[in-house]
């Protein structure tokens, strides 16, 4: 797992790296500029496209000057425009301006917008402001950014789009550069992983600039992002003398007469993730569907949506409740009965979350280390309305501690909150997965890992990461516009097999 950095921590890592590698800060800037330029050249190999690099006078601007020099040397047609709105400049900006001049590269400086000339370049590199941003843009900066946005050119931002905050609440009223591509240093900024970023970032790439990883990983921060190796390390190989009893028994309490599909997807995903036995607690009307679709699963029927009084709860290692369950009074009783009968961690999804939201008294019965998997609407129903995503991060961290549960806020980059206060982002997934039933599959996967004996936190990490990875692979292999839940769950065994 990789720690994510706030702007402040990024500055600390910068300082530490410079001290410990006995290098000059301008050399670190050169590395950043080189990493940016390599990524830029891969994305925009056509050297006939003219480039204008807009630079501020801080270190983001210094990066811009170094990038301009490197791209010029690589054969691009580069123009440099420096916004001298403030009397200050950083020393590495000054150092890079001297290097730029020594190469004979032409640059323009402007002190006010009125001095700006028409822009002809087809690509604009935005190196105006970076993580040093400390207030919303106003005055000349605001006018400049609005003007750049109005040009409709391809904009590539250095480290972060000018005006966008790396962390903290985003206001819809903040004006930022709208970038086609942002090439960010060392780590994605936390706000890149929240939907608020869609306003100004179409796509981002992260480049390694050689900041000290030991220092970064030792930083105390709640924010982290999952990696392939953090998942592989957690996956357990199947033991030589294993049998179905080795891999647990899961119960999926799901489905309604008209929503049997959710139960089927969840149960099949559970089975395909490797549980020894999977039983589906479903409405009696769904038995034929279950037998036809998943002959490997067993059924425990709910007549008139009531769980039989003699259900042997103790034989299950993990339970999922919610997909397609409905929110009727009978469904509420099903939830209540489950909460009263099973004290091991439970996976709550969909209608089980809606029922918890409308019956707060039931929340106290949620077993410790359970996993709740709300999407944003369910999250707000359960914990109250939020006006931005940063607030949701704070609520998620508080509620996971308070409930002693793992909360997975499902999104393009799902966010996992743990009882220890961690806030872990999942990088895998693709917009092609935005289709019905995906959540049911995820719930089945988490329950399966739980039933197999994984710790709840690990079960959540594994399921979310592999779910997204399988979706990504399916969409890229087949160049698929959409990946359906049914196709994804078929791919789970291979997706796990590739990672182990
Ligand atoms: N960290 C790393 O590891 C590395 C970082 N690198 C690069 O450094 C960048 C950060 O640079 P930076 O700290 O010099 O700040 P930057 O963003 O250029 O801003 C300059 C000044 O602008 C001002 N200002 C702020 N908000 C404003 C506003 N709304 N309107 C007007 N002015 C405003 C503010 O000055 P103040 O207001 O305090 O006087 C601020 O100091 C980072 O994004 C990356 O590109 C790489 O080179 C190498 C490794
Ligand atoms: K920038």
Write the layout of secondary structure elements.
Elements: E1 2-3, H1 7-20, H2 25-43, E2 50-55, H3 59-73, E3 77-83, H4 91-102, E4 107-110, E5 123-127, H5 139-150, E6 154-158, E7 181-185, E8 204-207, H6 213-218, E9 223-225, H7 228-234, E10 249-253, H8 260-272, E11 277-283, H9 287-293, E12 298-302, E13 318-321, H10 329-341, E14 346-348, H11 350-358, H12 360-363, E15 371-372, H13 376-383, H14 389-403, E16 406-409, E17 415-417, E18 423-425, H15 438-451, H16 456-477, H17 485-499
Parallel strand pairs: 2-3, 2-5, 3-4, 5-6, 6-7, 7-8, 9-18, 10-11, 10-13, 11-12, 13-14, 14-15, 15-16
Antiparallel strand pairs: 1-9, 16-17, 17-18
Helix pairs in contact: 2-3, 3-4, 8-15, 8-17, 11-13, 15-16, 15-17, 16-17
């Amino acid at each position: 797992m990789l720690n994510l950095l706030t702007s402040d921590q990024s500055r600390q890592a910068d300082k530490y790296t410079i001290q410990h590698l006995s290098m000059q800060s301008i050399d670190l800037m050169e590395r950043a500029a080189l990493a940016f330029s390599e990524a830029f050249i891969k994305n925009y190999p056509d050297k006939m496209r003219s480039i204008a690099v807009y630079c501020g006078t801080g270190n983001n601007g210094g990066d811009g000057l170094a990038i301009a020099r490197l791209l010029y040397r690589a054969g691009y047609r580069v123009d440099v425009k420096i916004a001298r709105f403030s009397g200050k400049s950083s020393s590495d900006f000054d150092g890079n301006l001297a290097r730029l001049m020594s190469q004979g590269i032409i640059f323009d400086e402007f002190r006010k917008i009125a001095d700006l000339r028409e822009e002809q370049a087809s690509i604009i590199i935005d190196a105006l402001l970076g993580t040093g941003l400390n207030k919303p843009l106003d005055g000349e900066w605001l006018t400049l950014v609005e003007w750049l946005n109005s040009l409709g050119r391809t904009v590539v931002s250095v480290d972060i789009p000018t005006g966008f905050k790396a962390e903290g609440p985003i206001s819809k009223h903040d004006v930022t550069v709208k970038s086609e591509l942002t090439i960010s240093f060392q780590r994605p900024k936390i706000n890149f992983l929240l939907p608020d970023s869609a306003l100004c970032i179409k796509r981002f790439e992260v480049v390694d600039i050689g900041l000290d990883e030991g220092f970064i990983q030792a930083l105390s921060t709640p924010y982290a992002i999952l990696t392939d190796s953090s998942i592989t390390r957690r996956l357990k190989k199947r033991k030589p003398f294993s049998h179905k009893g080795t891999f647990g028994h899961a119960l999926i309490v799901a489905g309604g007469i008209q929503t049997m599909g959710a139960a089927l997807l969840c149960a099949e995903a559970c089975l395909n993730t490797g549980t020894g036995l999977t039983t589906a607690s479903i409405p009696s009307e769904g038995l034929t569907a279950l037998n036809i679709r998943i002959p490997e699963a067993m059924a425990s029927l709910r007549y008139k949506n009531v769980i039989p009084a003699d259900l042997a709860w103790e034989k299950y290692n993990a339970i999922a409740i919610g997909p397609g369950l409905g929110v009727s009074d009978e469904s509420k009783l099903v939830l209540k009965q489950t909460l009263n009968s099973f004290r091991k961690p439970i996976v709550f999804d969909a209608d089980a979350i809606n029922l918890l939201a409308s019956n707060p008294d039931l929340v106290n019965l949620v077993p410790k280390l359970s996993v709740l998997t709300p999407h944003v609407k369910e999250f707000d129903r359960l914990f109250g309305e939020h006006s931005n995503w940063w607030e949701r991060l704070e609520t998620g961290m508080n509620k996971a501690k308070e409930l002693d549960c793992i909360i997975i806020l499902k999104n393009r980059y799902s966010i996992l909150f743990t009882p220890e206060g961690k806030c872990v982002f999942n990088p895998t997934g693709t917009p092609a997965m935005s289709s019905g039933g995906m959540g049911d599959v995820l719930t089945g996967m988490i329950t399966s890992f739980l039933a197999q004996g994984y710790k709840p936190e690990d079960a959540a990490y594994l399921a979310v990461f592999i779910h997204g990875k399988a979706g990504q692979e399916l969409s890229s292999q087949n160049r698929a516009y959409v990946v359906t839940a049914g196709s994804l769950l078929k791919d789970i065994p291979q997706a796990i097999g590739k990672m182990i």
